[in-house]
């Protein structure tokens, strides 16, 4: 069993991974890229519009990295819907 466990990929957990998963569920038409390393944000794009969303530890909320002071909120599901709305996409499954 130990050898099998060593072969399993490391599962990342945290607010940005939760946002990425919520975007896949709520707004599958939005191109989303997971953070490449710690400190990076989730890059989102739709029809030529791009943005980056990061987690702000001080606010305990998602914020637009490209728009200073642009708070999104702490809930990943609602953040995914707001991101989709901001990028003018049709909302995904509800």
UniProtKB/TrEMBL annotation:
Taxonomy, superkingdom: Bacteria
Name used for this protein in its record: Uncharacterized protein
